Amino acid sequence: MFAQGQFSTTLFPSRGPGLRGAGGRDAAARNALALGGAPRVMVIEDVQNFRELVGTILKHNGFQVTSASNGREALLALDICLPELIILDIEMPELDGLTFLEALHRNTLARNIPVILLTAHPKREYIERAAALGVRQCLVKANFNLKELAACVKSILDLEKDID
């Protein structure tokens, strides 16, 4: 996998069109167009300062940002508006990131939304479960750069646009 503390933006190879389907991405694209065309990114992170920092850098890079402090809030927010991409923490109160991913995977409208996992604890079993649930990238909080995160988001959304 990767050494403890190592930063990886290529932990999971980009998923091909076979993992795409009707619903989530198309609905998210319609949401973005209705809101002025900027892609919407949902940041799910329990640490408020970190959530706000990620949101600020994404806004400065032209994204619309919604946020949630745990998986339960995020699932409720998905009922209101689907994002085009989700940035997800693993360890959170009420509903952790992996349980959120399982619920996302069961949601026919949202299951194909790309997810970037952002974690302080890159445990092998977490990473393997996340990969099985379709996570596109995994970033380790201790070693990542906000500009790299923004570039990663742009790269995934550009790839998704090419597949559409």
Low-confidence parts, pLDDT < 50 over ≥5 residues? 1-25, 30-34
What is the mean predicted local confidence, pLDDT?
81
Going by helix content, strand content and strand pairing, the class is: alpha/beta
Compute the separation of the termini in Å: 31 Å
Number of domains: 1
Helix coverage percent: 40-55%
CATH fold naming: Rossmann fold
What characteristic shape results from the CA principal axes?
A: globular
* Reported CATH architecture: 3-Layer(aba) Sandwich
Q: Strands of the biggest beta sheet: in what spatial order?
A: 2-1-3-4-5
How many strands appear in the DSSP assignment? 5
Main beta-sheet annotation: 5 strands, parallel
- Please provide the ordered H/E string of secondary-structure elements: HEHEHEHEHEH
CATH homolog superfamily: Response regulator
Radius of gyration from the alpha-carbon trace, in angstroms? 14 Å
Figure out the total of helices.
Answer: 6
CATH C-level = Alpha Beta
Question: How much beta, percentage-wise?
Answer: 5-15%
Task: Provide structural commentary.
The protein is α/β, with parallel strands linked by helices. The chain has one domain: Response regulator (Rossmann fold). The chain has helices spanning 24-34, 48-60, 71-78, 97-106, 124-132, 146-163; strands spanning 40-44, 64-68, 85-88, 115-119, 137-140. α3 runs parallel beside α4 (97-106). The longest helix has 18 residues, at 146-163. The radius of gyration is 14 Å and the shape is globular. Mean pLDDT is 81; it is low at 1-25 and 30-34.
